[in-house]
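Key result, reporting period 2: structure in, sequence out.
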């Protein structure tokens, strides 16, 4: 009996797929964590602040696309 390496196994085989609601929940959690990180940054950390702000925007857009509940 030989098993395929994990990198070659299909998600369908494992049936380990997220529902849209599960994916949305994970994005909402990541949004909350990013909000906290952004709030802790000092004004002198402008470059990191800009990156986190862009990440936060992208996370919110992705979450909003999954279900019809704005995350603002």
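The corresponding designed sequence is given below.
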């Amino acid at each position: 009996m030989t098993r395929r390496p994990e990198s070659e196994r299909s998600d369908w085989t494992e049936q380990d797929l997220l529902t849209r609601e599960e994916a949305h929940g994970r994005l909402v959690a990541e949004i909350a964590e990013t909000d906290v990180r952004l709030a802790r940054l000092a004004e002198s950390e402008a470059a990191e602040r800009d990156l986190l702000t862009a990440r936060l925007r992208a996370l919110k857009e992705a979450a909003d696309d999954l279900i019809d509940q704005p995350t603002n």
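DSSP finds three helices and no strands in the chain. The first helix runs from residue 11 to 14. This case is discussed further under Risks and Mitigation.
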